[in-house]
Amino acid sequence: MILDGNKRVERPNTKILSDKNLPLRGFLTCPKCGRNLTGSASKGRTNRYYYYHCIASCGFREQAGNANAVFENGLLQFELNDGIKNILKKLLLDNYKKFVQSPMNEKKKISKEIDRLNARLSVARNKLLSETIDDEEYLEIKRDCKQQIETLEEQLSKDGLNAKKVNIDKSLDRALQSIVNIPKLYREGGISTKRAVIGSIFPEKLEFDGKSYRTARMNVIANHIFQVNNGLPLKKNGTNENIFHLSCLVAPPGLEPGSKV
Questions:
Q1: Nearest to 224 by CA among 243, 248, 197
Q2: Whole-angstrom Cα distance, residue 199 to residue 26?
Q3: pLDDT band for position 60 (50/70/90)?
């Protein structure tokens, strides 16, 4: 198989990332050693048991059912009612006005984000060549980065004056309506929808310790929703020092954390 001009022999045991029992595979890091977790099933006498796990020498393993349930329960923190939607709309309108008033600053931010995505792609390519990650995971990272880069480059190419022709009020209403019920979208969606939701909210890896999730960065809109829902004050830059510890993403009542083996 050819990837970026480098010929590689496709390995027969390439992981399939679309298993409906492992929607978080590829999004998790190990809380013990920091490596990327993978996921697989163990065959019991009558059933198959699914786990997210690290390499054998580390030994970290978590029942997928528990990790999935904790994550899905945590998504309730991103529900939008009318009151929260109005607050979020005001925040986004304020950000939009700043963008129109200082387009050069915004373009610099876009350029930096493009550089960051290219760097991430370069790191992933090196990991692929060193076989730290497999072809499927690399292709997923590459596809995600390329899509984001193309979108950002399109933004850079547009004339800032065109923004004045946009009915931002109606556009925001449509956008907010499309994300009004993220938990339901995730719960009822197929594996592709679930993975799209995870990737959209959490652009960086998640760390799960068996009880709660932590992440280094969150999508800015999801960040605002989370903070408003939890009564957390926004700083001037739109972030909150506690946002990155998602302590609210805990196991629902009656669900015991999975055992470590």
A1: 243
A2: 10
A3: very high
Residue 20 makes CB contacts below 8 A (sequence gap 6+) with 190, 191
Query: Alpha carbon 178 to chain centroid distance?
Result: 17
Length of the chain: 261
Residue 113: Cβ within 10 Å count: 14
> Residues 6 or more apart from 200 whose CB is under 8 A from it?
219, 222
User: Is residue 232 within 8 Å of 242, Cβ to Cβ?
Assistant: yes
Model confidence, pTM:
0.57
> Is residue 248 very low, low, confident or very high in pLDDT (cuts 50, 70, 90)?
very low
Q: What tokens does 96 get?
A: 């939009």
- The H or E element containing residue 61 is strand 61-63
Q: Which residue has the higher pLDDT, 89 or 24?
A: 24
CA-CA distance, 239 to 187, in Å (whole number)? 28
Residues 6+ apart with CB under 8 A from 24: 39, 52, 64, 67, 68, 71, 198, 206, 208
